[in-house]
Amino acid sequence: MAATFRSQKVAQRLAASSTLRSTARPFHTSTRKTLPISCILCQLWPSRAGPSNSAFISISPRALPHSRRAFTTTSCVSTNQSTEPSAAETPPTIPNAPNTTTYYTMFPKTLPAGAPPSSPFTVDLPTLRREFLSLQNTLHPDKYPPGPTKRTAETLSATVNEAYRTLCDPLLRAQYILRQFHGIDVTAEDGSGASAPLDPELLMEVMDVQEAIEEVGEGPEAEERIAEMKKENGERVSGCVKALAEAFDKGDVEWARGECIRLKFWVSVAEGLREWEPGMGGIRLIH
């Protein structure tokens, strides 16, 4: 009787176990068919693995490892590019190239102290020319083969040319000093560079000279008159250059600005007188 009861209990447990396995097996089988693998987002957030996220569920077993390898390779390339620049990005250097910080630093032998008032406004032109020729001998583009170094030499040579031309001319030199070291551009439309009104006496004097040139006729007398006016204007230019040098040497920027404007007018008159021809009338002043 007891054996019969135990046999019935065992039979019931086996039947229950068989029923549980038979009901669970289709679930696992179905899961394997519909969800062969889940992506990393589905693993972290299981609630995302629903019908609206079928794109994540359809990833094949081979796709995920492949995409991960590709991502890792791209990251390595990007890191190498940012930390190890190629040799082509390194600018070429020219042996004994000048310091191009300012026009004054390009000629350390002639202007060792730099711009005024550290050094005189007046420049030793013969010494400046010798240093200029020495620099051009170093930077001449024909000394270098075609390529980045040659292009660098061409750029440096053009910069040295411009610096030499500026420092040789008192007006260009004064304009450069005011603009580079004091932020004053006397080539502005108002001629002041500091929004200050022009000197009325200077304007009247320049207009008188211009009217005198317009009244000059033709013939030998006209040419003699123009020659006299050239001499008078040359004295004005010399006086302005002398006053300009004194102003810069004393560090008086406002005085230097005014003299630079005056010099610009007289240089314009000198150019007009140099281009004058009989019968041409007046001259056009650049101010």
TrEMBL record:
<feature type="compositionally biased region" description="Polar residues">
    <location>
        <begin position="74"/>
        <end position="85"/>
    </location>
</feature>
<feature type="domain" description="Co-chaperone HscB C-terminal oligomerisation">
    <location>
        <begin position="199"/>
        <end position="273"/>
    </location>
</feature>
<dbReference type="GO" id="GO:0005739">
    <property type="term" value="C:mitochondrion"/>
</dbReference>
<keyword id="KW-0143">Chaperone</keyword>
<dbReference type="GO" id="GO:0001671">
    <property type="term" value="F:ATPase activator activity"/>
</dbReference>
<protein>
    <recommendedName>
        <fullName>Co-chaperone HscB C-terminal oligomerisation domain-containing protein</fullName>
    </recommendedName>
</protein>
<dbReference type="GO" id="GO:0051087">
    <property type="term" value="F:protein-folding chaperone binding"/>
</dbReference>
<dbReference type="GO" id="GO:0051259">
    <property type="term" value="P:protein complex oligomerization"/>
</dbReference>
<dbReference type="InterPro" id="IPR036386">
    <property type="entry name" value="HscB_C_sf"/>
</dbReference>
<dbReference type="InterPro" id="IPR004640">
    <property type="entry name" value="HscB"/>
</dbReference>
<dbReference type="Pfam" id="PF07743">
    <property type="entry name" value="HSCB_C"/>
</dbReference>
<comment type="similarity">
    <text>Belongs to the HscB family.</text>
</comment>
<dbReference type="InterPro" id="IPR036869">
    <property type="entry name" value="J_dom_sf"/>
</dbReference>
<feature type="region of interest" description="Disordered">
    <location>
        <begin position="74"/>
        <end position="98"/>
    </location>
</feature>
<dbReference type="InterPro" id="IPR009073">
    <property type="entry name" value="HscB_oligo_C"/>
</dbReference>
<dbReference type="GO" id="GO:0044571">
    <property type="term" value="P:[2Fe-2S] cluster assembly"/>
</dbReference>
